[in-house]
Amino acid sequence: MKRHHQDIRDLIYVHLNQTDQYVISCGIEFTEFVAVFSDSLNHLLLLKHGFDDAEFNMHTLLEYCPEDQISKLAAENVYSYGDFCWIDFLEEDVLNELSGQEMAELLYLAHHKHHLKIPFYNKLGNRFVYLAHDDGWFNKIYYRSFKDFFLLLSEVISSKLGDLKPEKSLLGLRKKRNYTPVNKEILLSLTPFIKEGICISLRDADVQRTRIEIPIWVIGDFDNMDDMYEEYLQMAHESYHAKIIFDKKTKEWKLNVV
């Protein structure tokens, strides 16, 4: 029984494949991705989608989302598209330079969620290839630079924490609290674990008066997120492998590896 993406917003699964330059994730949505990269995202060539306001490119016979429409796309329920796949590119003219072979590679990517060759094209100048099925449930993103992945993870953890653990104001109203992003050095030091596949569980966070402790389990390499979730449910009863700790007083993060 597959869970709706709403059910796993308080869990983040990430598995990094360094050789092939991609990360498989569960629990990170397109809206969160755009929130982090909105200032630097270029046009998106839409390989599989359901966006009604896309432009059409005659050479590729594919639709694309211009840079100025990305916020509109991010506001859509892209989860409902089923498959949602795109590759970013610098300007429309470069689409007209794509060869038949390159277009075939892109169509294969979207169809199989895997590459024929590592999908970074100098013509397109792409930073990402974003391949999702039920966005937020199964996402596979190719990164030209893993710096972008670590930036995304650091921002998403702190943003989710603010959504999940709102503070009560003097009037008793709940308001989102802003947490500083997790230091990228901390996440980089978790790389050996992330290469095995980890689950960061905000639902199991231990919220104390002076600190918040978020457990991390190394759970392995999964393509099937139902299997991953079942593994998490079993592992959650066991000792965690690491935890990241937010100090409320200093507003700093630290890592504790067991």
Q: How would you explain this protein's 3D organization?
A:
There is one protein chain. With 258 residues, the protein is α+β, with helices and mostly antiparallel strands. The protein has two domains: 29-135, no CATH class; 153-257, no CATH class. 27% of the residues lie in helices and 29% in strands. The chain contains eight helices and 15 strands. The strands form two sheets. Strands 1, 2, 3, 4, 5, 6, 7, 8, 11, 12, 13, 14 and 15 form a 13-stranded antiparallel sheet that branches. A two-stranded antiparallel sheet has the order 9-10. A hairpin with a 4-residue loop joins strand 14 (242-247) and strand 15. The longest helix is centred in the middle third of the chain and has 19 residues, at 146-164. The protein is globular, with a radius of gyration of 19 Å. The mean pLDDT is 93.
Main β-sheet: number of strands, strand sense, barrel status? 13 strands, antiparallel
DSSP strand content: 25-35%
| Count of distinct strands | 15
Give the CA-CA distance, first to last residue.
33 Å
- Determine the fraction of residues in helical runs and give it as a percent range: 25-40%
Number of helices: 8
Which of globular, elongated, flat, extended, rod-shaped describes the shape?
Answer: globular
What is the H/E string?
Answer: EEHEEEHEHHEEHEEHHEEEHEE
| Whole-angstrom Rg | 19 Å
Low-confidence stretches: none
Structural class: alpha+beta
Number of individual domains = 2
Overall pLDDT level? 93
Protein name: Oxalate:formate antiporter
Organism: Neobacillus thermocopriae
